[in-house]
Design a protein that fits this description.
- The protein is mostly helical.
- It is built from 9 helices and no strands.
Length: 206
């Protein structure tokens, strides 16, 4: 029941934007594709500033007006803000020295998203600080359960959204911590044979 509720909240978050308009070489999977001819420096220089996942700075400004003037948008935001307020009073989902399981990762993803949205639309720093705490706990977790890579993927999405949406409100130290967590706990881990060549993939619906 709780899992369905969490999924529903995350769905509401994503619908909100529509409604509102390396380890060592021997441990890695051998490269079987040619070197990219597209990822050169001039391309990287054209990447837009943060935020760029699902939304940009102008859209945030537009949303502030829209949640005041559009009844549907206002109602959706009220739901999101309510969840953010509940999160402020909730305990951390991560235990020290323990990896982040799928259910926890999904809940953390929802927490970071509602906190970030509420902060960006209200300016209330309580939500910024709690989002930062959720991200710090996630970054300091023992691992993101690469043995069950769906868990790892959910954690990666959670951290990516938080880092992107709150980038300009985070310290340089926080940015580095959160970006390094994505690199070390997800991207590099995804290249390890032991997590990619296990037999769980063909035996499940994944």
């Amino acid at each position: 029941m709780f899992r369905k509720k969490t999924t529903r909240i995350i769905t509401i978050i994503y619908l909100f934007f529509f409604v509102l308009r390396v380890s060592s070489a021997q441990d890695q999977i051998p490269q079987t594709w040619p070197e990219s001819t597209h990822l050169y420096d001039s391309k990287w220089e054209k990447i837009p500033d943060h935020p760029r996942l699902f939304i940009n700075s102008k859209r945030w400004d537009d949303l502030k007006k829209q949640v005041k003037n559009d009844s549907v948008s206002k109602k959706v935001f009220e739901i999101i803000k309510e969840r953010a307020e509940i999160t402020l009073k909730s305990k951390s989902l991560i235990s020290p020295g323990v990896g982040v399981f799928h259910g926890e990762a999904r809940q953390i993803q929802g927490r970071i998203a509602v906190l970030a949205i509420t902060y960006k639309l209200t300016g209330d720093k309580r939500f910024l600080e709690r989002a930062r705490k959720e991200m710090t706990d996630l970054a300091n977790a023992a691992n993101w359960r690469p043995d069950h890579f769906l868990s790892c993927s959910e954690s990666t999405v959670a951290m990516s959204i938080g880092l992107d949406w709150l980038y300009n409100d985070l310290s340089v130290t926080d940015r580095r911590l959160f970006a390094d967590a994505i690199i070390e706990k997800a991207l590099k881990t995804s290249l390890l044979k032991k997590y990619n060549l296990s037999d769980w993939l063909p035996l499940t619906n994944w």
